[in-house]
Amino acid sequence: MGTGGLIGWLEEGQVTSCSTAVDVYGEATVGGLIGEMVGADIACCSSSGRVRGGGRTGGLIGVARFWDYPVGVHENKPQEMTNPGSIRCCRSDCSVIDGETAGGLIGHVFGTGKVEDCYASGSVSGKLMAGGLVGERWDSCIVRCYSAGRVMAAESTGGFIGNSECPIDVNAPAQGPTCQLIVESVPPAVSASGEIAKGTQWRVAFRPAIVSCFWDKEASTVMKSFGSGGDAQDGVHSLTTAQMRTMEAFRNFAWDFENVWMICEGKDYPRLRWEGVRCEE
Description:
By secondary structure, this protein is mainly β. It has three helices and 33 strands. The protein has one domain: Pectate Lyase C-like (3 Solenoid), CATH 2.160.20. The termini are far apart. The mean pLDDT is about 90.
């Protein structure tokens, strides 16, 4: 079980438009809002304060575990396969302190789900695997997110992610859309003798990636986006503090400033529209 400012443990369900402004302390799996979530949908939530733990600690969520579906062709399709879980339009400005695996937004995220349109602006410090947004990531997609806090750790320190791993799956599609879980029926298999297999089969496809994400290389005081990890880092871009305060840098990567984001040009980082921030004249 985890320790959270609002919820310790959450399996499935939805949490929407919730916020915390507290100090949270725990031994492991600690989050400013939620300690650990499994297959849930979190949207438009925020956290402020200080979060401290001994392992897997995040400003918003300690551990975000999406349902993990093996890609390839299968005999059956579980009902829950249609929704692995998601984290959308959330933010944290918590300061995070952890012994191992600390992230400004999430301590550890894994599974075939997506974190999109989120940000973290608090400081992060730990001994191992500290990242401005995520301490450690396995497989999951991260899309249109940024981090802008100072990051410090003895090992695996990244301005955006402490450690990022995306193991090669021989069944994974070589081409096709990224960050989209595809579950579709396929024609029954035909044997060499012409016999048709009974029952419907299902093809599962998912290509995890990091897309259109940013980190403030000046504020983080870290020179690289990932502290460690073997997958590509092409989807994470470093900017100066001044660049992070311009709309153009983000719009060039398909960020939605009409419905999702807003920015006080030249004065502040992008903010989520639901926050209701107003720019002074």
